[in-house]
TrEMBL record:
Cofactor(s) it depends on: Zn(2+)
Designated name of the protein: Acetyl-coenzyme A carboxylase carboxyl transferase subunit beta
Sections of the chain in a coiled coil: none
GO cellular component assignments: acetyl-CoA carboxylase complex
Region annotated Disordered, chain positions: 1-20
Catalysed reaction equations from the record: N(6)-carboxybiotinyl-L-lysyl-[protein] + acetyl-CoA = N(6)-biotinyl-L-lysyl-[protein] + malonyl-CoA
CoA carboxyltransferase N-terminal domain sequence ranges: 24-278
Protein task: Component of the acetyl coenzyme A carboxylase (ACC) complex. Biotin carboxylase (BC) catalyzes the carboxylation of biotin on its carrier protein (BCCP) and then the CO(2) group is transferred by the transcarboxylase to acetyl-CoA to form malonyl-CoA.
Species lineage: Bacteria, Pseudomonadati, Nitrospirota, Nitrospiria, Nitrospirales
Organism: Nitrospira lenta
Compartments, as annotated in UniProt: Cytoplasm
Length: 278
C-alpha cells in the first residue's frame, strides 16, 4: 500500500505566472545575469553585476545631461514620407504610423537646445525605440537643421547615438543622409565649433560610418556595442574568428577608435568640462 498518493493536476489547474513578477526582473544584455529591475533603475539603468549600461529613453537621456527645465525641442513635427512607395510585410507608411503611436514621436531623432552646467548646447539624441533609431531623410534633415542653428548661435553640438544604421525602407535616400550629415559636421569644423559624439548601446551601420565617428571628442558608455556590420557577418566574410569582446567600447578604446569611456553617472560632469574647455 502506498504511503501517499500524488495528485495529478491538469494544465488548467496550474496557477498562471504573474506578469508583475515577470516584470520585476531583467536579463542583462552583456553578462546575461538576471537582475532586479528596481535595483537597475536606482543605478541609472546600469547593471549592478557587470556595469553594462542599459538603453534609456530620449527623455531620460535629456534629463541626465541637461540642466533641469532648460531643454527646448526643435522641429518636433517633421515626419517621414514614403517616396519609394516601399512595401514588405506591410507598407512603410503603416510602419511609421505604428511607431509614432508607440513612441509618441514623429521620427527617430530629437533635436533642441539646453544648458549643461549653465552653458548653452545644441543637442541631437537618437531614439532607438523608433524603428531601431534608423537614419532616414527626417533624421538627416533634423540633424542638419540643428547644425545650422548651432552655427547661427555659435554653440557646440552634442550628438547621442543609439541606432541600427540607415533606414532600409528609404533606400538610397537613406544612404544619402550619411553624406549630408557628414557635410554638416564639416561646417562645424570650419567654424571652430566643437562637435561631441556620445555612443550608446548599440551604435551600428550607416550612423557609425558617418556622424557618430566624426566627433572632435568621441565618448562611449561602458560595454556599448559599436560597429558597422555585425560580428557574424564579419566572421563569415573574413573566415576568421573575431577577438573576444570585439566591437565593445573597451575594445575600441584600446585600439584608438574612441577617445574615452564614461559611466552614465559621470557623463554630464564630463560633458560640462569638455564644453567649458572648448
Amino acid at each position: 500500500m502506498a504511503w501517499f498518493k500524488k495528485q495529478k493536476t491538469t494544465g488548467s489547474e496550474v496557477p498562471p505566472r504573474s506578469k508583475g513578477a515577470e516584470g520585476m526582473w531583467l536579463k542583462c544584455n552583456h553578462c546575461r545575469e538576471i537582475v532586479y529591475r528596481k535595483e537597475v533603475d536606482r543605478n541609472n539603468k546600469v547593471c549592478p553585476k557587470c556595469d553594462y549600461h542599459f538603453p534609456i529613453s530620449v527623455m531620460e537621456r535629456i534629463a541626465l545631461l541637461v540642466d533641469l527645465g532648460t531643454f527646448k525641442e526643435w522641429d518636433a513635427e517633421l515626419e517621414a514620407k514614403d517616396p519609394l512607395n516601399f512595401h514588405d510585410t506591410k507598407s512603410y507608411r503603416d510602419r511609421v504610423k505604428a511607431q509614432q503611436e508607440k513612441t509618441g514621436r514623429k521620427d527617430a531623432l530629437m533635436i533642441g537646445e539646453g544648458l549643461v552646467d549653465g552653458q548653452p548646447v545644441v543637442f541631437c539624441v537618437f531614439d532607438f525605440s523608433f524603428m531601431g533609431g534608423s537614419m532616414g531623410s527626417v533624421v538627416g534633415e533634423k540633424f542638419c537643421r540643428a547644425v545650422d542653428r548651432a552655427l547661427e548661435k555659435k554653440r557646440p553640438v552634442v550628438l547621442v547615438t543609439a541606432s541600427g544604421g540607415a533606414r532600409m525602407q528609404e533606400g538610397i535616400l537613406s544612404l544619402m543622409q550619411m553624406a549630408k550629415t557628414s557635410t554638416a559636421v564639416a561646417k562645424l569644423g570650419e567654424s571652430k565649433l566643437p562637435f561631441i559624439s556620445i555612443l550608446a548601446d548599440p551604435t551600428f551601420g550607416g550612423v557609425t560610418a558617418s556622424i557618430a565617428m566624426l566627433g572632435d571628442v568621441i565618448i562611449a558608455e561602458p560595454k556599448a556595442l559599436i560597429g558597422f556590420a555585425g560580428p557574424r557577418v564579419i566572421e563569415q566574410t573574413i573566415k576568421q574568428q573575431l577577438p573576444d569582446q570585439f566591437q565593445r567600447a573597451e575594445f575600441l578604446l584600446e585600439h584608438g577608435m574612441i577617445d574615452m569611456i564614461v559611466e552614465r553617472k559621470q557623463l554630464k560632469e564630463t560633458l560640462g568640462t569638455l564644453v567649458a574647455h572648448f
